[in-house]
Amino acid sequence: MHGHVQGVGFRYATTRRAAELGLACEAQNLPDGTVLVTARGAAADVDALVDWLRSGRTPGRVTGVDAQPV
């Protein structure tokens, strides 16, 4: 994920949205200014979280989301 998200409640909002979807989720700031979001759960629910992250409804300014299944 890329963009300016620190200091705007982004991590809290992301983990709250993930919990609403029934996902286990962690969001952490990385030294380069990006945020790493790790979500575990049903594929459709993870996809819904990724869609939300790309939607523009998140706090902060997200300029890119790279989603990778593990």
Major sheet, described briefly?
Answer: 2 strands, antiparallel
Number of helices: 2
Structural class by SSE content: alpha+beta
Which blocks of ≥5 consecutive residues have pLDDT under 50? none
- In CATH terms, what is the architecture? 2-Layer Sandwich
Count the strands? 4
The end-to-end span amounts to 16 Å
List keywords for this structure.
70 residues; Alpha-Beta Plaits; 4 strands; alpha+beta; two-stranded antiparallel sheet
Describe the structure.
- This protein is an alpha+beta fold and 70 residues long.
- The protein has one domain (2-58): Alpha-Beta Plaits (2-Layer Sandwich).
- Helices cover 33% and strands 27% of the residues.
- The protein has two helices and four strands.
- It has helices spanning 10-20, 43-54; strands at residues 2-4, 24-29, 35-40, 61-64.
- The strands form two sheets. Strands 1-4 form a two-stranded antiparallel ribbon. The protein has a two-stranded antiparallel ribbon with strand order 2-3.
- Strand 2 and strand 3 (35-40) form a beta hairpin.
- The longest helix is centred in the last third of the chain and has 12 residues, at 43-54.
- The protein is globular, with a radius of gyration of 11 Å.
- The mean pLDDT is 87.
